[in-house]
Every structure is written in structure tokens, then in C-alpha cells.
Amino acid sequence: ISQLGTGASAIDHLAIPAYQWWSEGLHGVAGSPGVHFGSNVPYATSFPQVIGLGATFNMTLIRRLASVISTEARAFANNGRAGLTYFAPNINIYRDPRWGRGQETPGEDPYLTSQYVIQFVKGMQEGEDPRYLKVVAT
User: Fold this and answer.
1) From the CB of residue 36, how many other CB atoms can be counted at a distance below 10 Å?
2) How far apart are the first and last CA of the chain?
3) How many Å apart are CA 27 and CA 50, to the nearest integer?
4) Distance CA 112, CA 57 (A)
5) Would you write out the chain's pLDDT as a tens digit for each of its 138 residues?
6) 41 in Cβ contact with 79 (< 8 Å)
7) Most buried one in 39, 48, 73, 111, CB count within 10 A?
8) Helix or strand or coil: residue 47?
9) CA 92/CA 81 separation, integer angstroms
């Protein structure tokens, strides 16, 4: 049961340390239970909301932006300030403004959302060495 939440406790007899899965990277590395600002990494770049990024229809930009996010996320991890799993991108289709979280999505068009997600995940996960993921987009 202790492994079913966003904060997984350690399993001592298997030498598996505790892990916080909840790190936010929707439009930049953001303060969340798994990300701790301070020390050598006091801040991160904050990009515009996803709905605005989707409105650019510029998938090259989205991929490059996600690469910057994952580079900063890797810096946080290298400094012991975050893990390597990030809740991003949001793949929900924005259909009803009463939902209240539409700004976290690329918009209401399924094709645009699919293209946005493909480029965002590639930007987050692909690094210099194809054998390793920079971070994991979840």
C-alpha cells in the first residue's frame, strides 16, 4: 500500500530508497512535493501556460522548450533537489470551460494535442545519449 501514492516509502530489505513521484514540469520545473528549490538551484525558467504554447502551432518550439525543461530538471536531480519523473504533459482535450484547468492543455483540437504531446515527450526524454532518458515524462 505504501507504494501506491505519489510518495513511495523505502523498502529497506530490498535497499530501495523512498521516492517522491510528484514533480511538476508542465511549463517549467515547478515547486511541487518532489521539487525543492534552494541551494545551487534556487529557481527555474517558467514558460507561458500550455494553452498559449499550443496556440503557436510551432512544434519545433515545443520540442526545444521541453528540452530546456528537462535540462533544468536534470540539474535539480543532479543536486539532489528532485527526482527524474515529471507530471507532464497534460494530454486532456479541453472541451468544457467549467473544468477550470484548460490552461494546462494545448487546446480542444485532438490533432494539435497529439502533435504537441509527441514533441513535448521527445523534448523531455531525449538527450545526448540515446541509451538514457533525460527525465521521464509521465
Assistant:
1) 16
2) 21
3) 6
4) 7
5) 778 888 899 999 999 999 988 999 999 999 999 999 988 889 999 999 999 999 999 999 999 999 999 999 999 999 999 999 999 999 999 888 888 888 999 999 999 999 999 999 999 999 999 999 999 999
6) yes
7) 73
8) coil
9) 29
